[in-house]
Amino acid sequence: MLPKFAYIRPESMSEALEQLAGDEAHAHSGGTDLLGCLRDGVFEAPKVVSLSGLNQMRGIEETADGGLRIGALTTLAELANSEIIRDRYTVLAEAAESAASPQLRNQGTVGGNLCQRPRCWYFRGEFHCLKKGGDMCYAVEGENQYHAIFGGAPCFIVHPSDTAPALVALGATVRLARGTSERTIPLEAFFVPPETDVARENILDSGEIITDVFLPAPAEGTVSTYRKLRERGAWDFALTSLALVMKIDGGRVSEASAVLGGVAPIPWRSTPLQEAIAGERISQDVAADAAAAAVREADPLEHNGYKVDLVKGVVEETLMSFA
How far, in Å, CA of 289 to CA of 25, rounded? Predict the structure, then answer.
């Protein structure tokens, strides 16, 4: 049952940012995560500020430098169905299409997808865990089959977003707004690992929101894809996923950007994988070596060691699709 809260629907960006000032207000875009968190008591929101009336935060448009601007209220369905994204930023279209169910993709927004809270059952449940101000991460000794194998300590959540790994792999930046100020940062710097601050998942200050996502123009010869492994073929979160962007020059990989999802508290850039394929022609041997490199730093818990094999499999399978 949802708790009581004040619901505000501003008609301008300035009014929205004014209403969001203070710790008691929460932004509402698609609401597919926010309302679930309120219902489950993950946090309280005495005031909910709807962004739905801010049309300037919607849409996909080309920028002067050949890239794209994506409004933060653009839905996942719109990303998946956009011809320009499917053609030039395939990894993002595939990631958006793999997220949730058709109903949720039509409701959920790219901004909300980047900011969603962890799905860890201890965090979402009635446990006073480390992330909620307690003194322990229950996943360490508990049921941890869905938790992190990279970058986990001291908290072993995994970032639930599908679009985040794709956008990080593409080198996206985000514009953030708070009060009368704005800042633009690389999306990769947006996420906060537990070892830096266990209470946060991103750098948003109180009252600050994502307004736009920007993609650079793809270089000639760029190919990309998103592969997701899940427990069910229907709607589900990733057990592991891979967003891969490569520039192919003369049949060899001249540049690579590889980001794993479902295995770490943040979208996890796999530098060893990138290094393993740099300058190489994709072959079975190269794919196998890259898969081994991708899990070199993995540190699984008692019940999630199977994710190591999943990462190796998804890396090898994805690379061989370009062979």
Answer: 49
Q: How far apart are CA 217 and CA 140, in angstroms?
A: 42
Residue 34 and residue 12 in contact, taking contact as beta carbons nearer than 8 Å:
no
**Residue 311 gets which letter from DSSP?**
H
- Which domains occur in the chain, in start order? 55-116+157-215 (3.30.465.10), 222-320 (3.30.390.50)
**pTM of the full predicted structure?**
0.97
Best CA proximity match to 165, nearest among 237, 235, 250, 221? 237
pLDDT tens digits along 102-126:
898 999 999 999 999 999 999 999 9
Q: Is there a contact between 247 and 221 (Cβ–Cβ < 8 Å)?
A: yes
Closest CA to 53 of 89, 19, 100, 101: 19
Angle of helix 306-320 versus helix 284-294 axis, rounded to 10: 150
Query: In the chain, what is the straight-line distance between the N-terminal and C-terminal CA atoms, in Å?
Result: 51
Closest CA to 200 of 5, 24, 43: 43
Q: Please give the single-letter amino acid code of residue 64.
A: A
Token pair 């996206």 is found at 172
Q: Where are the alpha helices (DSSP H) in 131-256?
A: 163-169
DSSP for residue 191: B
Output the CA torsion sign for 102, 106, 107, 110.
positive
Return the residue matching tokens 């369905």: 77
